[in-house]
Amino acid sequence: MSEIGLKRVYDAPEPGDGVRVLVDRLWPRGVRKEDLKMDLWLKDVAPSPDLRHWFGHDPARWAAFQVRYRQELDAGNPEIAQLAALADKEKVTLLYAAHDLAHNHALVLRDFLRGV
Questions:
Q1: Is 75 helix (H, G, I), strand (E, B) or coil?
Q2: Between the CA of residue 84 and those of 20, 76, 109, what are the distances in Å?
Q3: In terms of C-beta density within 10 A (0-12 exposed, 13-18 middle, 19 or more buried), how is residue 75 classed?
Q4: Which helix (H) or strand (E) holds 19?
């Protein structure tokens, strides 16, 4: 497994980012498509709309969100498989728009890809 980084879409790209993958289902607010340096946008690795709405970035629901999101990831889909294969070969930086650095789906996704 290669290195998997995390970065908010609002942070400047860096040469060491590797393959930059947007992992949000919705396009980030305030970011023009032509301004975001990314290599892939994999919408279907993000939590389902129902799970995203239920979580609502409420830290009190964080533990339950992690369990539910991992269940969705375990169910798999072609985009999850594509991201896992990519992360096996080269450095990947997962891009996300959430403001909360400690309670967001990209953290769970990174740990899932690492096998943690």
A1: helix
A2: 14, 11, 10
A3: exposed
A4: strand 19-22
| DSSP H or E stretch at residue 4 | strand 4-8
Q: Which residue has 């690795």 as its token pair?
A: 45
Q: Which residue range forms the structural domain that includes residue 24?
A: 4-114
Tell me if residue 49 falls in helix, strand or coil: helix
Task: Give the phi and the psi of residue 11 in degrees, each rounded to 5.
Answer: -85, 145
What radius of gyration do the chain's Cα atoms show? 13
Model's pTM, two decimal places? 0.95
- The number of domains in the chain is 1
- Taking the C-alpha atoms of residue 87 and residue 96, their distance in angstroms, rounded to an integer, is 17
Sheet holding 92-96, edge to edge: 4-8, 92-96, 19-22, 40-41
What are the pLDDT digits (tens) for 57-106?
999 999 999 999 999 999 999 999 999 999 999 999 999 999 999 999 99
